[in-house]
Amino acid sequence: MIKAYILLGDFMTLYEHKMSKIYIFLFLNILIFLIGICKIKANQFPLMGITIYLDPGHGGLDPGSIYKNIYEKDINLEICKRLNRKLTSLGAVVYMTRDGDYDLSNINSTQRKKSDLNNRAKIINESSADMYISIHLNSVSSSTWHGIQVFYDDVNNKNIVLANMFQEQFKKSLNTTRDVKEIKTMLLNRKIKIPGILIEAGFLSNSNDRYLLRQPNYQEKLADNISKVLISYYN
Ligand SMILES: [Zn+2]
């Protein structure tokens, strides 16, 4: 009888040992599976947890640069809308200073432009965004100047790093030979405290730039290249 108990005891110990091994095996497999899912999500949404403030320059009564009936304000907005969709699909939270044809100046303001820029800076500073990107188009009296160029203000030490990353990407993929430029007199960029840059996406005064900037596939390409920089900056 005692021997039978001993045998039963051995059997139970062996059984419990085997079961614990099975549990450990199952636990490890579930863990590996869950890590796999997290990795897939991280790859699919590489900007998850990042908030970007997009700022399409000008709007409303302020058209920005003009060439015949082509207004800078409209192209800035188109580019930002595409960029918004792209960044959102990559997991980022995106805000825009405007999503239609208007500016942000106070009603009856005597200094409309200043009021507009002050309000843009205010809403960006009061947000919890990680970065802002202002989109503009350049225009000069010479029609030969062309290419995309990044401007920054050294209000924080991240802006120069960001500006160079964007400009290098544009040199690689968007056929520009321009270099970054530091400007301390841009009212908006001086006032914004979070990291960010201003992109002059091309020259409205240059015929090739003007043609490209209005093409949906070029605007998408622009959005893709900006997104690539953000992914490598945050990962
Ligand atoms: Zn502009």
In CATH, the topology of the largest domain is named Aminopeptidase
Count of distinct strands: 8
Poorly predicted sequence stretches spanning 5 or more consecutive residues: none
CATH architectural category of the largest domain: 3-Layer(aba) Sandwich
Number of domains: 2
Ordered list of secondary-structure elements with their pairings:
Elements: H1 2-44, E1 51-56, E2 66-67, E3 70-71, H2 72-89, E4 93-96, H3 112-125, E5 131-138, E6 149-152, H4 159-173, E7 181-182, H5 187-191, E8 196-203, H6 207-213, H7 216-234
Parallel strand pairs: 1-4, 1-5, 5-8, 6-7
Antiparallel strand pairs: 2-3, 6-8
Summarize the structure.
The chain has 235 residues and is α/β, with parallel strands linked by helices. It is 51% helix and 15% strand.
Tell me what the structure shows.
The structure is a single chain. With 235 residues, this protein is of the alpha/beta class. It has helices at residues 2-44, 72-89, 112-125, 159-173, 187-191, 207-213, 216-234; strands spanning 51-56, 66-67, 70-71, 93-96, 131-138, 149-152, 181-182, 196-203. The chain has a six-stranded mixed sheet. α4 packs across α7 (216-234). The radius of gyration is 27 Å and the shape is elongated. It binds zinc ion. The site of zinc ion has 5 residues, from loops. Zinc ion binds next to loops.
